[in-house]
Amino acid sequence: xxxxxxxxxxxxxxxxxxxxxxxxxxxxxxxxxxxxxxxxxxxxxxxxxxxxxxxxxxxxxxxxxxxxxxxxxxxxxxxxxxxxxxxxxxxxxxxxxxxxxxxxxxxxxxxxxxxxxxxxxxxxxxxxxxxxxxxxxxxxxxxxxxxxxxxxxxxxxxxxxxxxxxxxxxxxxxxxxxxxxxxxxxxxxxxxxxxxxxxxxxxxxxxxxxxxxxxxxxxxxxxxxxxxxxxxxxxxxxxxxxxxxxxxxxxxxxxxxxxxxxxxxxxxxxxxxxxxxxxxxxxxxxxxxxxxxxxxxxxxxxxxxxxxxxxxxxxxxxxxxxxxxxxxxxxxxxxxxxxxxxxxxxxxxxxxxxxxxxxxxxxxxxxxxxxxxxxxxxxxxxxxxxxxxxxxxxxxxxxxxxxxxxxxxxxxxxxxxxxxxxxxxxxxxxxxxxxxxxxxxxxxxxxxxxxxxxxxxxxxxxxxxxxxxxxxxxxxxxxxxxxxxxxxxxxxxxxxxxxxxxxxxxxxxxxxxxxxxxxxxxxxxxxxxxxxxxxxxxxxxxxxxxxxxxxxxxxxxxxxxxxxx
Length: 565
Hints:
Helix content is 30%, strand content 21%.
C-alpha cells in the first residue's frame, strides 16, 4: 500500500481520537477529566483490534487491547445495533480497576458493523467504602465500588433507564457522575460519526485494509526496534513498600527475554497478591509492559494493536501483577503500574544504555476527599493528583514535577482547585535538593500544603515511595522520598496518619476526618539520578544552584562543586 496514503489515513484516525478527547474534556463535570485529562479515546475494528488512539493517558493506551478483546469475546456482534452504547468497568474482564469506565459504541455503515468508538476514563466517584474511589484499606473488590460487566446503557439510541438508575443509585455524586458519563458517551458519538464518514469515503473493503495495514506497519516498526536490542535475558526487581493492610514490602520481578524481533516479559518470581488494594489486574500488567517498551523505542510508532504484537506478557494468576477475584486492585493501575513499567525499563537498561532512564517518582500521591457542601447540602468529592520528578537520562536531567510515567495527567490549577473545593492552598512549590544526584540529575518533586476552609470532610490517600527511595541508574543516586503530614487546626505539630490515627501505612489509608482549619502537606517523590554525580558538568551544578534546584551545601557535598560568593 502507498505509504503516503497510509500515513494520511493513520493521521486522520489519530486526529479523530484527539477530537474525541477534547469533547470529553470540555463537556465533563469533574476536574479529573476537565483539568487532569485522566482518559483516552480510541477506534477499533470489529475484532477488537485497536487501530488508533489519542495521546492521552498511557496506562489506558496499553490497557485497551486486552480490554477490547475481552469485551468482543463476551458480547456477540450480532446482538449489537446502531445507536447502542455499552459501559464496562470490571477489573476481572480485562479492565484496569473499578474507577476506569469504558464506553463502547459500535460503528455501523449501511447495516454492517465496521468497528467501535471507545472512550475510557477514570470516574472520580464509584461508591464503595471511601469517597472518590480510592479505598486505601480495601481487602476485596466489593469495598472498591460498583463493578459493572459489559452492559448496554443506551439501546438503539434510547437510554436504558433501569441501568442508569442502578449506576447512579450506587454513588455519592449522581449529578456529577451523570455529567461525566454523558461526556464519555459524547466522545464515542463523535468517534462513531467521524469513523463512519471515513468508511464511506474510502469504501468498506478499503477501510478494513487500511486498518490492517496500519497495524502491520506498526508491528514492523516495533519489530525493527526490538531487533536492535542484543538477544539475552535481563532481570530487575523492585518493591511496593506496603499494601495499606500489612507493613511489608511486595516484590515485582521482571525477566525480559529478547530474541530477534520479539520480546517476552515474565513476572514469575513476583510476590503473591496482597491483601490490600495494590494488586494489578492482567490488563494493568499488559499496559505497564507495553508502556515500558514504548518509552524505550521510537516515539513515532503509531500506537495500535500492531505495535504490541511482538511483545508477550507472562503474569502468573494470583500474584501482585495478576490479581484473582475478589482481591482488591484500585491502587494497581495508579501506583503498581508505575513500578511494573519501571522494573521492565530497569531490566533493559544495561542493553539500552543510551535510551535508559532512572525511575521517576513512580507514584501519583492520589489525594481523595469528600463531604457535604454546607451551602447546597450536595455531596462533593475530588480525585487530585500530585506531579513527581522524572529520572535522569543519558542526555538530559529528568523533568521536574510532571505526571507519573503512566498518567500524563496535568495537575489541577490552584485557582480551579480552590474555586471548586473547600481548600486554601498555602504552599505549592518545587522541592530543592530532591532530585537524585547524577551526571544527569533526577527531576524535582513537588510539595503542596492545603488548609480546609468551610466543610468537614474525610480524606483518603493512595501513594508509595515513602519508605523506599526512587532508584538511580548507572551510578546515579536515589531521588528523595515522598511524605504526607497533617496538622490539626491551631497546631504546628505535623504528624503522619500512622502517628495521628494509628494507620498501618502512612501512604495508603481511607476515611480520615478533616475539620475546617486542618492542614495537609503532600510531598511527592523525586526522580533518580543517571550516571555518577562526580561526572556532572560543574557549570550545570552552578546553574542548578542559581535556579534554586540544588543548595550550595549539596553542590559541595555531593558534586564537589564550591559555590562562590
